[in-house]
Write a structure and sequence with these properties.
Layout: E1 31-42, E2 45-57, E3 62-72, E4 78-90, E5 100-110, E6 115-128, E7 131-144, E8 150-161, E9 168-176, E10 179-191, E11 197-207, E12 214-224
Antiparallel strand pairs: 1-2, 1-12, 2-3, 3-4, 4-5, 5-6, 6-7, 7-8, 8-9, 9-10, 10-11, 11-12
Amino acid sequence: MLVSLISAQPALADGAVVDKVYHPYVLANERELEWRFTSRQNDNGNVLSQRLAYGYALSDVVSVEGYLVFERDQSDDFGLQGYEIETRWMLTEQGQYWADWGVLFEVEKEHQRDNWEASAGLLVEKEFTHTSLTLNMLMIYEWGNDIANEMESEFRLKYRYRWIPELQPAIELYTGEDFVGLGPAFMGVHRYEGSKQLKWELGFIAGLNGDSKDHTLRFSLEWEF
């Protein structure tokens, strides 16, 4: 989350609303490797970013994940853009209450620049028979030498039909500063022996904020073991 730079003017979070809708769940003893790819095309050009991460569960309810964030520069070369630490805390057991609750905390630093970003958010998920509604409500504060100190808010929504584990279609909504985006998404999970499983997500989000062109393609793979 929060990884793109405008190619001509570095900044941590500006314009990078479309990333991932987080679920509030943590699995005991989970370890994971994750790769995310995002391509955003708008009137300013095409911004490509990738993230590599390793995470593990500290307990039955808390997990930590560290990210390396890469982005394509003006020479069309991918390079290291930043670092991020993310913590998820599952507040309730699945099915314990009317909805399942969790919180998310993130800190990101830009590579070779004294620019920082801190985020805190509430994660909510509710199941309705064969569908699930997931909500993320985030507050983001960024500061540093090259960016203005400011507070932003973001909202993410995923409404998913749990058809079969390997294929679950969804609709996703993202809102942030000067951005509203909506589009289809798909996700699935393939389970192996024991706790091993491979998760994938694919989404195409079209901006609805009035620009002539603003759409984002996102894809991710997550290996849990």
